[in-house]
Amino acid sequence: MATPEHLSASQEDYLEAILLISSRKRAARATDIARHLHVKGPSVTGALRSLARQELVNYAPYDLITLTEKGERLATEVCRRHEALERFFLHVLHVSDAAAAAAACRIEHAIPTEVLERLMRLAEFAGACPRLGQDWLARAESGCQKARDGRRCAQCLTEDVTALAAAAAQQATQRRTGADQGKSNSIPRHRGRQDVPTHHE
To answer: Which of the listed residues 29, 32, 58, 176 has the most CB atoms within 10 Å of its CB?
Structure first.
């Protein structure tokens, strides 16, 4: 997704790299950026000059490179998108670390904010919803996604509904049993014949 400053994906990568390097070293050098992005020195120089013209980086040849306030804001947003996507791929889709990082790098520049926010909410829901559980993706892959005609999906839903109904009935029975016991405990017990005092004449 293009930012309001109309940055390219490559320019966003440079801002992200400078932010990450600066978080470790307080400032970045051109050689650090080239190593981080696996590019040649002349490419770094051209990109930094372009970003400096947009007032996103403080750059001078052979000097340390830092982000301007606007550049840091944009770089932080790029990092936020990357981290959110990587978490989604890791914890919801359960792909490998390498695949999650590579996919996040490609998608972070194009995904609209609304879609990203919904993915983040879906990830939170998948982790919190007790009906899904940790194995929900495995069940989906082995069941519904392979059932072209939907019959296995219908069977799965029927089993879920039956299980929920049984659990609800069991809870209702337990509540009734507890209520009955409470009533019996609250009824005063009358003294038996042996408790009646005997008066001697």
So the answer is: 32
